[in-house]
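Supplementary Methods S3. Input chains for the assembly prediction are listed below.
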Amino acid sequence: MDIIHEILKYIGLVFILIGSIFLFLGALGIYRMPDLYNRLQAGTKASTLGAMSVILGVGLLQPFWLIKLIIIIIFIGFANPLSSHALARASYRAGIKPCCDKEIDSYGKAVEKQLKKIQKKLKNLTD
Amino acid sequence: MLKKLIVFLLIATLGYTLAVTLSSIPIGKNRIGSIENPETVAAYYLDKSPNDLKVANTITAVVVNFRGFDTLGEVSVLFLAATGLASILYRKEEEEEEENIRHISHRLNLPSSSLVQTGAKILFPLIIVLGIYVFIHGHLTPGGGFQGGAIIATGFLLMLVSYKGFETNHKVMVWLESLAGLGFVGVGVFGLVKYGSFLQNTGWTGNLNDLISGGLIPLIYIFVGIKVATELTNILDILLNIKPRKK
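Predicted structure tokens for the full assembly:
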């Protein structure tokens, strides 16, 4: 029993190390990346994985908390990408352009189509 | 150059003041005193709340029991803030026509994506449950009425932001808010009539760490939680849907 505990402890420490490395890379990405979308993706992807890994490591160190912590991991995996998706979408629609590649913009065409539809609706409403 | 000098001087003054203040604080020294030999009021609270009131969370005991009247004032300040906001944002009809069109267009231009809508639908009941959990366990775990109410209001904010058509039922909200406020005052009057002072706790307190313990403290925190939740939701609703007055 003690040996299992010891092994779990070391696995948990490795998970915490991996998680903190990812969190550091996420912070570095937010500092280093050129525009909002790159920063969002660096921040979200790295910090989601980092937070999950750290929490799982803590769960392995303290098996008594493991079920609660797994629920928290599921919540982070659910809510973090969702919020970054909403942020990126809202900032695109608010008119913030991606910095470097100006030629490929398939989402912009879709947005324009939608906006035209909405403007037609608005005209019908105001008339 | 002069600007930088002024900024530097300001920061230096601020830093000096902070350093002087911080150096006069005896960090690490026990200033509360022991429970057997209380030197300050903090030791009195730390002794009284788990032993006499059977409330595990001392902060809740202080907020709701020892200075419950002050909490009643805080709740009414929040109520006044909500009322003031509503009265300021309520505009007359002449200015409203053009504004209204802009308002509609603003809401139509930003339909949130189906991902966000699905996520909000899944998260909303969970957030409400968490908020209710926080204010029901206010006397056992960190948190309480104000925090739980704020959590519930964030759930409603999520729904208001992600669904265009989502509307809260104003009548139900106003009734809940008024009943919760009345309940708080009613608990106070109950103490006044039965024990001789406003918001006096009952003699019955139950056991430490039980869900139903601490006399009237959980009841008061449930009222505070409902009141804060409805008030904050009303504020958010007003801010997001400024509607014209109908004649």
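Chain B touches chain A at residues 101, 104-105, 108-110, 112-113, 115-116, 119, 122-123 (CB under 8 Å). The first helix of chain B runs from residue 2 to 23.
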